[in-house]
Amino acid sequence: MKPRNNRIMFALFSVLISASMVLTACGGAATTAAPKPTEAAAAPAATVAPAGAKLAVGIVLPTKNEPRWIQDETRFKDAFAKIGVTPEILFSEGDSAKEKANVESLISKGVKVIILTPQDGKAAAAAAEAARAAGVKVIAYDRLILNTDAVDYYVTFDSMAVGAAQAKYLVDNAKGTGLPLYLYAGAASDNNAFLFFEGAWEVLQPKIADGTFVIKNSSEATALKDKPKLTRDEEAKIIGQITTDWKFDVAKNLAESNLTAAKDADKGNVFILAPNDGTSRAIADTFAADKAVTKYYITGQDAEKPSVQYIIDGKQSMTVLKDVRTLVSDAITAAVAFLAGKTPVQTSTYNNGKFEVPAKPSEVITVTKDNVKQAIIDSGYYQASDFTGLP
Ligand code: BGC
Asked: Of the N and C termini of the chain, which has fewer Cβ atoms inside 10 Å?
């Protein structure tokens, strides 16, 4: 953990220095010529953007309603603060029309790179195409922009690994057979929701097929229980029954109606695949309130502070830490490369329905009560003072 973080910090540091030089080149207030890419390495460590420098990069995030995206905003601000820049970060309020207006506003302000987390992967194609038409590079951030070639790069976490980690946690804790399994998924408009589910299904399916688990809330998933690999259409059918739409209230209402429909015999010691922390807390609270549920194991992802507290308190079983500092660093590195006329490092590709988008996925870490202190506090991700009752 530690050496990896050091590497991240070093990469971010180098990037920030390069970024500050790019700011000098692109900022309205600066007059000096752009350094050649090879000169970047020789920049003095103390380089700071000139007062009032404007960043040639704009950021568009999906919503302020989830701690996850506030966390990304904070991490972007922290990274840019180190070079004396206040980045322009716009939120789309869960609305694709607002997202497109945000992108257009950044284009009109003269940014050269837009870092965009689409609210809806398909709808965002129009915004990306507007950027491409204006000569602006588009970096899809965390979520892929679909069905367009107007995406220049994709920084992400390994989303299949997120789903696999969640499923592995449930499988590792499954003792016996006929264990009730409740499945929940993200928003069907988000490509990640499919990747998370696909990653989870590959691990869960053999344990459903052999009778360890019995799915209680999706007839579509039950009908496909003997299929190790699902098509996108099959996944869509399942997700259609178990979607939370990434919303706490939708997750809560769905969990309530699942429990109302279930018999007491379908409860007891239950296993719950919850796609992320926000929905996990909503679903966990609902299951905890049902007297026929004697024990539950529930997954999550994002290491949102409230969920870290839930894990410490034994109310959520696990989360998947996606170190947002890495994603921010990768996004800035890519933006800096584009600004310098270079191509960012590609370690993988993701098919967006139109082409193989050059990408850089990052690793994820499973966090439970057992390693919460080491993974979350000792790594410097959050402060111990943010929590009570740390083990
Ligand atoms: C992200 C998750 C997030 C979810 C809901 C996904 O695309 O990868 O980290 O919890 O969206 O916002």
From this structure: C
> Which residues form ligand 1's pocket by a CB distance below 6 Å?
66, 68, 142-143, 186, 190, 192, 246, 276, 301-302
The closest alpha carbon to 240, from 274, 295, 194, 203, belongs to 194
Q: Which residues of 230-253 are buried (b: 16+ CB within 10 A; e: fewer)?
A: beeebbbbbbebbbbbbbbebbbe
Centroid of chain to Cα 168: 19
CA–CA gap between residue 169 and residue 164 (Å, rounded): 9
Cβ atoms of 136 and 113 within 8 Å: the answer is: yes
Question: By the 8 A CB rule, do 361 and 158 touch?
Answer: yes
Rounding to the nearest 10 degrees, give the CA dihedral for residues 365, 370, 371, 374. Answer: 170
How many Cα atoms sit within 13 Å of 185 on the Cβ side?
27
Question: Three-state SS for 292?
Answer: coil
DSSP string, 308-356: HHHHHTTSS-EEEE--HHHHHHHHHHHHHHHHTT-----SEEEE-SSSE
Alpha carbons 217 and 86: distance in angstroms, whole number: 46
Q: Which amino acid is at 340?
A: A
pLDDT in tens, 65-85: 999 999 999 999 999 888 777
Give the mean pLDDT of 306-324: 98
3-class secondary structure for 223-262? HCCCCCCCCHHHHHHHHHHHECCCCHHHHHHHHHHHHHHC
Q: How many Å lie between the centroid of ligand 1 and the Cα of residue 166? A: 14
CA distance 347 to 362: 10
Q: How far apart are the first and last CA of the chain?
A: 19
Determine the Cα–Cα distance for residues 46 and 33; give it in Å rounded to an integer. Answer: 19
Collapsing DSSP to helix, strand or coil, 84 comes out as coil
Going from the Cα of 196 to the center of ligand 1, the distance in angstroms, rounded, reads 10
pLDDT band at 86 (very low <50, low <70, confident <90, very high): confident
In angstroms, the CA 117 to CA 119 distance is: 7
If you take atom 10 of ligand 1, which residue's CA is the nearest one?
A: 276
Count other Cβ atoms within 10 Å, centred on residue 103. Answer: 27
Mutation to probe ligand 1, out of 160, 244, 283, 302 (largest number of atoms < 8 A from CB): 302
Q: Give the pLDDT confidence of 140-168 residue by residue, as tens digits.
A: 999 999 999 999 999 999 999 999 999 99
pTM of the model: 0.89
